[in-house]
């Protein structure tokens, strides 16, 4: 009896390996997405159109990663009919993959705006938007950390600190909007470029929101709690 | 998870893991229930409430005492000479182990369906009419038989061969005939010990559907090794586990949401996810 308890069945071991693989796929996907946001904003700041184009091309691999993760999850649900922590882990992985995919779209969106703006002279030196971007990417990293921990108290702690960052991103976003608006008011010729930058800032703000969604999924995974 | 910690495995479930119903009068309530076979204790100190008209599944690794507990609910353990039952089981306000209680009457009011279909070697009709006849319910016996077979969702399949032996039909049909036999005396509770484990998927589905339909008027306690089945058909799940000294205890009892979604006891998590048992 004692021996039997200690031997975890082969099927269970394989299941654990598959879950580990799923987690690795998510970590990889998240790395792609972080890089995409960073590259999109750096390209915008440096007016590096080739780099913007690369961000757009590379979004395909983010989409593919999501499809692969989705397939893995469907396969695991079908094969294992998972219960309890296993079920929560697979469901949360599906949800996180879709959040990451959307973040990838924001990076692509920023890259497209950069290309549309093309070689127009810069409206102003970009400081606050890249700062928002750094904060959002950092939030994304920690949200994933919360997810990987699968631990209720880690998730709770990270959630508290991420909420503060999310507020900081929102504040910065408000400041960016006010600054751009002032530029438009001072010279209506600025309107087009200011609008583009407004979109960029909006995309970055959404990245932070999605990071918060990922923490929400991490909380579900760790505690089974859904919603607030 | 300290799964190899024998102390942990021997512990009874903590109070917060065991659901109680303040607002509902339980139809069955076991208190301090222990069963020994000879000198060997099989289950110890089980306390559980079964709310009326609910489906409760009893799960846990093989040998943890599920069948033993189930048999306590209608004094089936009386039929095992080495078995000693201590504690009480309250059913509709009375302790079924009180000296004045007639176990046969209890077994009609709390019917039982076993893992292997066990029709009597008699006609299908006689199988179902058996209980009502013993109870002197001989009026309208045809109607009782038909109604019971209908409730057991097997009427259409056997209505043209009621005179054939109960053993001459398929396993899934035999099982539903046994359920009809239990239902024929209008029991308040039906205990089922892995009723579908020997059946094909279609028959299993028929039994599961039947359980859900019955649960509006009958309380059902079902032992199953199939977690998916338990989540599909039951309202509550009770988890039993035997520790190192091999004595079964109730370790967790809650809604399906709790037991299969987010168990409180690490041993439940390990069991429902296939890490032990
Ligand atoms: N008639 C009996 N005589 C002696 N010991 C018994 C008897 N029936 C059961 N036991 C013992 O009591 C313990 C609990 O058995 P029980 O049949 O209740 O377990 P179970 O949870 O129903 O297992 P399974 O899932 O395999 O049906 C086991 O150790 C078993 O060997
Ligand atoms: Mg059994």
Can you offer a commentary on this structure?
The complex is a heterodimer of chains A (228) and B (277). In chain A, helix 2 packs antiparallel against helix 3, helix 2 packs antiparallel against helix 5 (128-149) and helix 3 (49-80) runs antiparallel to helix 4. With 228 residues, chain A is mainly alpha-helical. Chain A is 87% helix and 0% strand. Chain A has helices at residues 2-6, 10-46, 49-80, 84-117, 128-149, 152-186, 191-223. Chain A has a single domain (2-223), classed as Phosphate transport system protein phou homolog 2, domain 2 (Methane Monooxygenase Hydroxylase, Chain G, domain 1, Up-down Bundle), CATH 1.20.58. Chain A is built from 7 helices and no strands. Chain B is built from 11 helices and 10 strands. Chain B has a 6-stranded mixed beta sheet with strand order 6-7-8-3-9-10, with helices on both faces. Chain B has a 4-stranded antiparallel beta sheet with strand order 2-1-4-5, covered by helices on one side. By secondary structure, chain B is α/β, with parallel strands linked by helices. Chain B has one domain (5-10, 27-272): Rossmann fold. Chain B has helices spanning 6-10, 66-72, 103-109, 124-134, 141-151, 155-158, 171-183, 201-214, 227-233, 256-261, 266-272, and strands at residues 26-37, 40-51, 55-59, 83-91, 94-95, 110-113, 189-193, 219-223, 236-242, 248-255. The two termini of chain B are 15 Å apart. The model of chain B is unreliable at 1-9 (pLDDT under 50). The chains are: A mainly alpha (228), B alpha/beta (277). Adenosine-5'-triphosphate (ATP) binds at residues 37, 42, 60, 62-68, 80, 82, 246, 248 of chain B.
């Amino acid at each position: 009896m004692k021996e039997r308890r200690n031997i975890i069945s082969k099927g269970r071991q394989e299941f654990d390996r598959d879950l580990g693989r799923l987690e690795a796929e998510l970590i990889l996907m998240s790395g792609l997405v972080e890089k995409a946001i960073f590259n999109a904003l750096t390209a915008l700041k440096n007016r590096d159109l080739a780099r913007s184009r690369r961000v757009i091309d590379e979004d395909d691999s983010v989409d593919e990663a999501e499809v692969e993760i989705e397939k893995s999850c469907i396969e695991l649900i079908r094969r294992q009919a998972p219960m309890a922590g296993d079920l929560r882990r697979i469901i949360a992985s599906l949800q996180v993959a879709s959040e990451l995919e959307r973040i990838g779209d924001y990076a692509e969106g920023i890259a497209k705006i950069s290309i549309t703006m093309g070689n127009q002279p810069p409206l102003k030196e970009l400081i606050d938007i890249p700062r928002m971007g750094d904060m959002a990417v950092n939030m994304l990293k920690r949200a994933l950390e919360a997810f990987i921990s699968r631990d209720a108290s880690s998730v709770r702690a990270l959630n508290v600190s991420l909420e503060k960052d999310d507020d900081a991103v929102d504040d910065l976003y408000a400041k960016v909007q006010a600054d751009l608006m002032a530029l438009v008011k001072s010279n209506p010729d600025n309107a087009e470029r200011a609008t583009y930058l407004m979109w960029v800032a909006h995309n970055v703000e959404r990245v932070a929101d999605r990071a918060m969604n990922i923490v929400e999924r991490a909380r579900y995974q760790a505690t089974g709690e859904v919603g607030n | 998870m300290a799964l190899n910690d024998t102390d942990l495995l021997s512990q009874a479930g903590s109070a917060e893991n065991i659901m109680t119903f303040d607002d509902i009068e339980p139809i069955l309530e076991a208190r301090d229930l222990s069963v020994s076979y000879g000198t060997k204790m099989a289950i110890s100190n089980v306390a559980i409430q079964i709310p009326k008209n609910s489906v409760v599944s009893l799960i846990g690794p093989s040998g943890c005492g599920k069948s033993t507990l189930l048999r306590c609910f209608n004094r089936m353990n009386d039929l095992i000479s080495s078995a000693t039952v201590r504690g009480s089981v309250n059913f509709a306000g009375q302790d079924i182990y009180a000296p004045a209680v007639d176990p046969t009457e209890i077994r009609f009011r709390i019917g039982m369906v076993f893992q292997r279909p066990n029709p009597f070697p008699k006609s299908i009709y006689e199988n179902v009419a058996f209980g009502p006849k013993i109870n002197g319910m001989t009026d309208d016996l045809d109607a009782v038989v038909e109604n019971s077979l209908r409730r057991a969702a097997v009427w259409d399949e056997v209505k043209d061969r009621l005179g054939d032996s109960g053993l001459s039909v398929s396993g899934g049909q035999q099982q539903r005939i046994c359920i009809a036999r239990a239902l024929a005396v209008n029991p308040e509770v039906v205990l089922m010990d892995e009723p579908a484990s020997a059946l094909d998927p279609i028959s299993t589905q028929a039994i599961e559907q039947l359980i859900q339909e019955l649960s509006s008027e009958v309380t059902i306690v079902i032992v199953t090794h199939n977690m998916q089945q338990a989540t599909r058909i039951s309202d509550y799940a009770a988890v039993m586990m035997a520790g190192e000294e091999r004595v079964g205890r109730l370790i967790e009892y809650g809604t399906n949401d709790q037991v299969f979604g987010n168990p409180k006891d690490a041993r439940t998590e390990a069991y429902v996810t296939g890490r032990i048992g």
